[in-house]
Amino acid sequence: MMSRFFQSDGVYYFLRTPSAIVAAIIVVIIVGGAIFAPWIAQSNPYDLASFSLMDGLLPPVWQGGDPRFLLGTDNQGRDMVSSILYGARLSLFIGFMSMAIATVLGVGLGLAAGYYGGRFDAIVMRIADVQLALPAILTALLIDGISRGLLPPSVQQDLRVVVLIIAIALSLWVNFARTARASVFVERNKDYVQAAMIMGQRPSRVMLRHILPNIMGPLLVIMTVDLASAILLEATLSFLGIGLPADSPSLGTLIRIGMQFQLSGEWWILWVPTIVLAALVVSINILGDFLRDIFNPRLR
Amino acid sequence: MLTVENLTVQFPGRFGTFTAIEDVSLTIERGEIHGLVGESGAGKSTIGAAIIGLLQPPGFVSNGSIHLGDTDLLILGDDEAHQTRGKRISMIFQDPQTSLNPLMTIEDQLIETIQTHEDISTEDARSRAISLLEETGIENASQRIKAYPHQFSGGMRQRVVIALALCTNPELIIADEPTTALDVAVQSQVLDLIRGLANTRGIGFLLITHDIGVIAQTCQNVTVLRGGQVMEHGPTQQVLNAPEHPYTQSLMAAVPRLDVKLDRFLVPDTEEGVETAPIGRSAEDAERWLRSGDEMLGQGLSMEGVTVKFTGARDSLFRKPEVFVALDDVSMTIRPGTVMGLVGESGSGKSTMAKVLTGLVQPTAGTLKLNDSTLPLARQRGRKDPSRRVIQMVFQDPYSSLNSRHRIGDILAEPLWLYGLENDRAKRRDLAAAMLDLVGLSADAINRYPHQFSGGQRQRIAVARSLLARPRVLICDEPTSALDVSIQAQVLNLLKDLQARFSLTILFISHNLAVVRQMSDDITVLKSGKVVEAGPSEAFFNDPQADYSQELLSLTPNYVGQKGVASQTLVTEV
Amino acid sequence: MAYFILKRLFQSIFVMLAVAFLAFSLFRFVGDPVSQMTGVETSVQDQEQLREELGLNDPFVVQFYRFTTDILKGDFGYSYRTRQPVNEMIASRIPATIELGITALMISLIVGIPAGVYTALRTRGFATQTILLTTLVGVSIPTFVIGIVLIFLFGVTLGWMPTFGRGGTVDLGGWTTSFLTLEGWSYLILPAITLGVYQLTLTMRLVRAEMMEVMRSDYIRFATARGIPQRKLHYRHALGNTMIPVITIIGLQFGGVIAFSIVTESVFQWPGMGLLFLESVRFVDIPVMGVYLVVIAFFFVLVNLVVDILYLMIDPRLRVKEAI
């Protein structure tokens, strides 16, 4: 089993694509750091007791900072490394959750639309048209605005993350639906699907057991690319000040806070989270590109 | 004129360097049509690509020489090589549907090509283009030249492609499967055209094909390839009728004959390993299981007055969308335990008939019968309808008919589970393995995935899957047209054996008349959705009644040359 | 052909109606319009009277019909926040956003298409790898970070360009334009680049992928076998066929340009619709949000109709149907 894995085409091309290897390493480091943040971070940026104003605005170590704070501190005295680990944790959580919801929603609708065709397909595609006319960031802002109007302020703070996830997920599902639908149109006429239909298998079984595994390639690519989009979208919303509040900082929030120090010389407060965010998203996109090449044998 | 000497082409790759062509030599004279024949993977197209200098990277010529006249084609620089292309060597591709730029008119493409190689005014280029189109058999060329490719039919497009290849008056044209995508009637016209051009213009042709019939009909000389090496070469008559090399002999023996029905095909040795193995013990288990079904008698299948209409896409608000009649009042009766051959050109409605019988397409009128009882039409046929098990289907393309993400064992066990034939998981597995044995594959195939098998092996697996439903009726839609001729012979033998042993009722659909003659007891000829002729097979082949049937039979390249047959008739001239 | 356009027109009308419905539901159900318009001191009777005057007690369908016809007449209602008519607020902001969007789109096309073609034709060169890596970074860095970098570099450090607002406009009968003065351009260029970079990378990667696909097609191989010169092969045969899918996507991208102008306008304090929308989201100014939605969808639908017509002009398969 293992030997087959190591001999597979994917692993072969992976080991010969240095950029993919570097990207994978970066993703593993950041995701690993985010998952284990509570155990490896020296302080908890949400816990006011774990940092002190006395340590505020210390530069990174190589600029003569305090050896306790590798990448320096912000104006509140929070350790930048810890802030980033927790920030990445939140960003990745929101990214993964919204991507997962968008995948289930989009793939489900796309599969069914492509399989049944006809009126159901027309309805799903018209909804997708409307969604396309309202770009991702607009949808997200809109949902955010609606939630402000509908939810009482006391609940709003607690539900911010949920609202954000739903907003991002709703703006991404169309990609999945369109791709799944287009792939199903191709697969549906292939003989193995026809064989299953002739046998009288249940539509749900034909879709999930026969078609879905065969269209996983393009879907996996979109999942990767949309994970990157979701993380960017969250950062952008937080930057605009309508994503997450400052007391539970994601990478985007950290960048917004850092903006205030852009001109005053404390560059690290802005640039450390910016670079981490960019590195994470670039790496995910490189992996997405790599997957795209793998699944498109004609481009090899 | 063209001299290829000791050509070797290599492709460096992941598992070491692959030698696609090894030490191939051939010559083509002015006006000669030289056939290059071989099964898939023999390297036919690679030779063509090497001559015109368009080898797909990373392939390269590692040894040998290619001379056109006095020019050494291999030492030309990129620019010189590019100027030679079109000017002195041209090429015709297999699929006329995709060979023309869809956004440019025929006129633009022709004039552009002429002016690329000659300093000539647009007016002169246009009149040359028109006369070329006329020469290739396009009537009313001065008007049709303004059209876009999509406005032409497949055969017409191939003529345009040939006109484009001709328009700079090249010395050599490489034709890579030029008629494979065409129906026999159109194929015969295009081959006539090629023969005519070789005669009148003295153009040399390298005709690459897998079809022995095409070779027999057109070529003076032929080179037989296998695994990148030349097996045999010489005058067509001699190679086809008195092959010397054992491979050529067995290849010729495997070609289905149009002139007489044989009991079995002679099966050449293949590299796949012999799959006509003696039946093992577990195959007996499979056989016993197949026979243990309730009804062993053959079941008849018939359709009465079936009409199928498809509605095209709507493209005007005021006109109703066009209705395409795929089947028009078609009736057919397949006697229990016999094979019905269904023939017709592409678009004649053959596959639609299969889909009506299997319940994928809803007819607008007509009834179906399975052994005297009514067989429900598509929408009325429930998922649990017993006919779903009794009627099974074998598809054309063995690469897409097996789900590539499932193991062979799971694919084979699916009918057993679905129809409730065997509820024990382990027993399902044993039966699947036994059935593999019955169709001539080893039982350890069960743990592997479809992509690990060749086309012929996959088709055997597909047959095994259909047998595991314990069917009484098999519908085979072009089951061997995607296979090489030697593999085709094996699969057809297998189907014959199974049919005889289990008295299966088979609907055998094919565009290849020779194959149908070998397989069927009765025959139905379909044209544009209508039955043209129907009756016992041997009577049909000996004395076709309808005009269309006669034409079809006369156009089919007839190659009579099996070993031991003295007949020297090579080409049945039309 | 006419049917094709007509069908698209129907689809567009459906999209507009759906968006209008969305905007209406927003207006009607997110928060109570009456309590938004009135203060705490307004009596219940007055509130009820206002409710009656606004027609909020009418059946749902009637209200939606009135909402839609009002929009068609250009009557967009009043902002909760500024109490101004929304149509005036939007109208004064439209030129800024449109000019920003067009300039960004132009940058994206003028740089993106040639770069895509180049990288598709030279798949393995050093320049190609560099461009590809740069664009990958381009799609991965948030727009606002690009804006910040540009401001820092050209505005603060070098002091070449203004970084704030939209000075130097000329009024052309109600349409204020930055295009006519050098000063206007100096304000426009940084936001336009910021907005254009992301679209540029998308355009480039798309053109590259499509072009590589086309270069592999049979008709290109056949044209090569006929000795058609490289330049014609690339720009006449391949590029035309590449543009068919590209045009569709560029139409869809226009939505992205407008949407991301929200971010750009926020970074550069560019007085366009995006900034207005952002303020209205912050203050839950529902009428402005709703109208912005309708206006954006309208632009999107309009651009895509134009794209469909372009499509017809390029692709004879849609234009000429009859077989010969």
Supply the key terms.
A: 300 residues; mainly alpha; B: alpha/beta; Rossmann fold; 3 domains; six-stranded mixed sheet; 23% strand; disordered C terminus; BP-dependent_transpt_permease (chain A); MetI-like (chain A)
Task: Characterise this structure.
The complex is a heterotrimer of chains A (300), B (574) and C (324). By secondary structure, chain A is mainly alpha-helical. Helix content of chain A is 74%, strand content 0%. Chain A has one domain: Orthogonal Bundle (MetI-like fold). The longest helix of chain A is centred in the first third of the chain and has 37 residues. Chain A starts with a helix and ends in a 5-residue tail after the last helix. The model of chain A has no long low-confidence stretch (mean pLDDT 83). Chain B has 574 residues and is an alpha/beta fold. Chain B contains 20 helices and 20 strands. The longest helix of chain B has 18 residues. The two termini of chain B are 30 Å apart. Chain C folds into two domains: 71 residues, no CATH class; 232 residues, Orthogonal Bundle (MetI-like fold). Chain C is built from 13 helices and two strands; from the N terminus they run H-H-H-H-H-H-H-E-E-H-H-H-H-H-H. The radius of gyration of chain C is 24 Å and the shape is globular. The two termini of chain C are 18 Å apart. The model of chain C has no long low-confidence stretch (mean pLDDT 84). Chains in contact: A-B, A-C, B-C. Chains A and C meet through helix 6, helix 7, helix 11, helix 12 and helix 13 of A and helix 1, helix 6, helix 7, helix 10 and helix 11 of C.
